[in-house]
Amino acid sequence: MDTFKDIISSKNPTGISDYFSLYRRLDKASRENPPTYDKEIKIAILSSFTSNGIKEALYVKCCALGIFPKIYVSEYNQYMQEILNPESGFYRSSPDLVVLFIDAMTLWGDDYFEPYRRSDASRKEWVSEKTGELESLIGAIKAQSSAKIILHNLAVPTHSPLGILENKQGFGFLEATEALNGSLRETFRSDRQVFLFDYDAFCASVGKHNLTDHKMYYIGDMKLSLNHMPALADKYIAYIKPLMSMTKKCLVLDLDNTLWGGVIGEDGIEGIKLGPTPDGRPFWEFQKYILSLFERGVILAVNSKNNFDDAIKAIREHPYMVLRENHFAAMRINWEDKISNIKSIAEEINIGTASLVFLDDDKLNQEMVRSAYPEVLVPVMPDDPSLYLKTLMEIDDFNSFQITDEDKNKGRMYAAQKQRKEIQTTATDLTEYLKQLETKITIEEATPFTIPRISQLTQKTNQFNMTTRRYLEEEIRAYSADAQVIVLSLKAEDKFGDNGITGVAIIKKGTTQWEIDSFLLSCRVLGRKIEDAFIAFIGEWARKEKATRLVGELIHTPKNAPARAFYQKIGFALREEDSGKTLWEYDLSREFPFPDFIHLNRKD
């Protein structure tokens, strides 16, 4: 019998028929022998028209990513009945992700073809009315489910019965459709559970005149051609990756013929192509977009076979170099192979290789890294540099549901880490080094401002994470409102800069026993005794509230080896052990040692 991986690797689907074929094989295999994927997701698709093909394409794409999907598709045009009935199959499917796809023709009804039967005022009322209807439907879903919700906006029609006079109307048909899109954007702008998918932009990208197979529309009410379903599934995947904690953190870049045209060792700083010229502009604008990624929190690194002095001179001195030395958290400019450098970069930054994206113009280097580290995303770079920017813009692996202040400053935080390592090499011992850092930590209970970052850390932190329990913002918000649960964030800073919120603890209070549900720390502040200070703070709080025991669970995962010795090292006693799980207990009649070189600022 074929395994899932065998089936996925057997064919590279190029058309919708391939997706149908692969789906049938995968579905049959899953029923005969359910796959043991680490990641599973439940998706519900609610549509106002026949949407055959989206389930099949999305299923295959999820499996190819290593995610086992369970996809519920509502019956034809039954989205409203499904949403308003708490006992519907939709709610019974307990989705993690909901897609609500209602098209413009459905919302306009007969007025889609005769919009000027309505007055300008009536069309304005239509915008308000439909905004309210959709807000009400979304509210009904949120009352029953904590799933993330993708709401499609409307594809603005390309036709008007008034032809070239359409834009001369007081409040025309197309303007009303655009206004509804704007109204939906404003309505859900601050809603962290709902994401407005720009279906109008998607339709424009595939060509609105090619959107529908008109014969299939009249036969089966298929308003989106089967041929476009794989591309639409790709758009949904951009939401699934962050939901499954599969986003990338670091962009690793080659230099020659990647960040600039030419070879610095041969052409010299004056001869490389970079700047506002026809052959330099592709690289110049490519760097500008990379800088925009850095400013939203993507870590940058260099992996280049080059003479260091030549390359660093270009980085520091070329007048059109956008990315400077301070933008890179790690630089490997040497004559080592790219594979060794990739490993070294990940170790220096202290993240897993699965968090890396590697861009290199050389096909051999691409294949070498792809083969050595399949978990590293290595896009196929086009031969034409004018397509570099397009290629980078199409990478959806840096998406997240929330960009926090910590995200925005992450690149700078990692760059500051290099300075910390410099004083580490001159310090005579670890304690002296830690004292020189002048570390300050701020511990506070969760607030509306910190909940997004707390959720994000539970989703992303793998190495120093005792239980690796993943929590959505809605779940963190519910915990923080529970009087028997304490949700804490920890912010760390030192003389080199502010690391932002880098630690999280979730504690369930009992009369005499407090249980640590989650205890984690970002890898970038690990090893500075901050974790010791954090647990000491929790222990002291528990003691003040008359608890006698602090209990912590350790669940072994492939990535959390750095966390496994912590409880024992800090003085917990082993209480239970069972197949990859251990339970540790601390007797609170003993005080926790608090590192005297860490200054604690508690926010009550």
Question: What does this entry show, briefly?
Answer:
With 604 residues, the chain is an alpha/beta fold.
**Rg value:** 27 Å
Annotated CATH topology of the largest domain: Rossmann fold
CATH class of the largest domain: Alpha Beta
Q: Beta-strand level of the residues, as a percent range? A: 15-25%
Counting structural domains, the number is 3
Average pLDDT rating: 92
Largest sheet: 9 strands, mixed
Q: Give me the count of strands.
A: 18
Determine the number of helices (DSSP H or I, runs of at least 4 residues). 24
What's the CATH superfamily of the largest domain, by name?
SGNH hydrolase
> What is the helical fraction, as a range of percent?
40-55%
Uncertain ranges: none
What is the terminal separation in angstroms? 59 Å
Which helices and strands appear, and what pairs or packs with what?
Layout: H1 4-10, H2 16-32, E1 39-47, H3 54-64, E2 67-73, H4 79-84, H5 89-92, E3 97-101, H6 104-108, H7 120-144, E4 148-152, H8 173-188, E5 194-197, H9 199-206, H10 214-220, H11 229-243, E6 250-253, H12 264-271, H13 281-295, E7 299-305, H14 308-317, E8 328-334, H15 338-349, E9 356-359, H16 363-372, H17 388-393, H18 405-408, H19 410-426, H20 430-437, E10 440-445, H21 451-460, E11 464-465, H22 473-481, E12 485-494, E13 497-508, E14 513-521, H23 530-544, E15 549-555, H24 566-570, E16 573-578, E17 581-587, E18 599-603
Parallel strand pairs: 1-2, 1-3, 3-4, 4-5, 6-7, 6-9, 7-8, 10-18, 14-15
Antiparallel strand pairs: 10-12, 11-14, 12-13, 13-14, 15-17, 16-17
Helix pairs in contact: 2-3, 3-11, 7-8, 12-14, 19-20, 21-22
